[in-house]
Amino acid sequence: MKHYVRIICVILCCLVIAGCGQNEVKTSEQTQEPQKKPTPVVKEEKKPAQIGRDINPETLQIPVLMYHSINSNVKNNLITPPNEFEAQMKWLVDNGYHTLTLASLIDMLKTGQGVPDKPVVITFDDGYQDNYTNAYPILKKYGLKANIFVITDKIAKNNHFDEVALKEMSDYGIEMDSHTVHHFELNTLSYDEQLRELKDSKATLERLTDKKVNSICYPVGRYNEDTVRAAEASGYTMGFTTESGKANKNKGMYTLPRVRMVPGMSMESAVK
């Protein structure tokens, strides 16, 4: 009898020990929670703020200023003294004007979208050396954009800036556009000759700047129907004349007028 009691006690002890072991395993399993992966942080993309406002393109008119030489030796009305030029640039800044590149002007004229307050375009014809030595430092001083119509055959010749200066200004943001290869009066040339002048100058500037050239300025403002066809066929999207007025798409994207800047002219009268 005592023998059986001992056996029963041993069995009961084994069962108790086994039960405790299972409880410990369960408790251990319960306390070890699975490791949670961190929730990825999703950055909320901010929508770019709309620059400018929308204006009916039929009525939108933007002044495109036409300069040539910026030099103190004023021999004719194509030369603006540097101190006068600086006063004009300062006036634009002080009065809240926004300068545009011709590349940005294209869509504005066509659609009227994203037009800044008081837009104005500054252009120089021919590519004179003093555009680099006199005008460029003033433009940088006031943080203004500008565009230069370059005669490609005259680069580094006859008082015109060289490729180094052209590249420096282009890298800074001064847009280089075409004034043809030789500055011939286009209306005296055949269609094929005009096409060659326009295509070759465009190709040269695009090679030098590694940027697309969108605009052409007709030498001495001379052009005809062939000129407009050649400009479009050459890949230009805008053509400028020397006719007086503000740019508006209804005047033709290849026959756009400009405001001629002459010595003694006030900037206020030019942009009004």
Give the helices and strands as they follow along the chain: HEEEHEHEHEHEHEHEEH
* Percentage of residues in helical conformation: 40-55%
Mean of all residue-level pLDDT scores: 87
Structural class: alpha/beta
Specify the overall morphology: globular
Number of helices: 8
Q: How much β-strand is present in the residues?
A: 15-25%
Characterise this structure.
- This protein is of the alpha/beta class and 272 residues long.
- The chain contains 8 helices and 10 strands.
- The strands form 2 sheets. Strands 1, 4, 5, 6, 7, 8, 9 and 10 form an 8-stranded parallel β-sheet that branches.
- Helix 2 (82-94) runs parallel beside helix 4 (129-142).
Give a short synopsis of this structure.
The protein is an alpha/beta fold and 272 residues long. Helices cover 40% and strands 15% of the residues.
